[in-house]
Design goal:
Layout: H1 5-22, H2 30-35, H3 40-52, E1 62-68, E2 71-77, H4 80-86, E3 100-103, E4 106-113, E5 116-119, E6 127-128, E7 142-143, H5 150-156, E8 160-161, H6 162-165, E9 182-183, H7 187-196, E10 229-230, E11 236-237, E12 242-250, E13 258-264, E14 271-273, E15 281-282, E16 287-288
Length: 289
């Protein structure tokens, strides 16, 4: 979509005005918008040219009439999502109108972190198998529950080998075992999350997990649980100590390794490692397409 420099500037300006309005520092009205542009006539000409005269599909303009002391006030509401869409950018991938996702008998909540929409809970789908069994490409989603306890799957989510989580595909950003319209996050997806939270692992951890320098604050709302892992040697370890989340990114096409996000209970670091075999069973978080 071709957009003039002036139009893009106006969109960015309106976005900032909306943010200020939502934080209570400014009331977003057409009068306030015009007041903050020195050349009122030029602004009105631009608005008329690029907004009023453009086809409706290019702008979702909402005018609401408020009655206050027998006076009417026209408010121009432009959402941040609409601004990005008008600028030809698919971001942010908003959770708007998708507060919950019902999937295979369980309800998951959605969470907006920056421009990404995540499921707030670890995925818990499939049939539980015991640690000495191997999950396989048999058309049935198979999961491990820490210690072989179903109640721990109910709380922490299932643990999945990489191939099972990917449903035996190797394409990054694949749906895998996620609901339709969602995917296993890539290494890049997690890197974007890290930037959004300023590389503060504590902001990702649920409250009650970690201690001292690694105590979870959950300021992002991500609610990461330190769910541990099932090792290649069939041992359950690190429950309450470490959170491991698979990505859909392999080290390379011929590798037995894939990247995963790592959080621990003793510090605030966030790490993306690629140093364990895909036969380890980790937690899965899904990201909206």
């Amino acid at each position: 979509m071709k957009i003039s420099y002036i139009f893009l500037s106006i969109l960015i300006f309106l976005t900032q005005m909306l943010i200020n309005a939502q934080t209570g520092s400014l009331k977003l009205t057409s009068e306030n918008v015009i007041k903050n542009i020195k050349d009122e006539k030029k602004f009105q000409d631009i608005i008329h040219r690029f907004i009023i005269t453009e086809p409706p599909k290019k702008l979702n303009k909402v005018e609401t009439i408020k009655k206050n002391n027998n006076q009417t006030e026209k408010n121009l509401s432009v959402s941040v999502n609409q601004v990005f869409q008008l600028a030809g950018n698919d971001e942010p991938n908003s959770c708007d109108r998708t507060q919950t996702v019902y999937y295979k008998g369980k309800t998951y909540h959605t969470l907006q972190v920056g421009t990404q929409c995540w499921l707030k809970e670890n995925l818990d789908v499939g049939t539980m198998i015991i640690s000495r069994q191997e999950s396989s490409n048999n058309g049935v989603i198979e999961k491990y529950c820490y210690g072989g306890r179903k109640d721990l799957c109910d709380y922490y989510g299932g643990l999945y080998k990489w191939d099972e989580a990917m449903q035996y595909k190797t394409t990054p950003k694949v749906k895998g075992i996620c609901p339709t319209g969602w995917h296993i996050p890539t290494k890049t997806d997690f890197e974007k999350l890290m930037v959004t939270v300023n590389n503060d692992g504590n902001s990702l951890k649920a409250k009650g997990f970690g201690y001292e320098d690694g105590e979870g604050t959950n300021t992002s709302g991500f609610s990461a649980l330190l769910a541990g892992t099932l090792t290649k040697g069939r041992l359950y370890i690190n429950l309450g100590y470490v959170a491991y989340f698979w990505t859909s990114t392999e080290e390379n096409a011929d590798s037995d390794l894939a990247y995963y996000l790592y959080l621990n209970n003793s510090n605030s670091s966030i790490n993306l490692f690629c140093n364990v075999n895909k036969d380890y069973a980790f937690s899965i978080r899904c990201l909206k397409d």
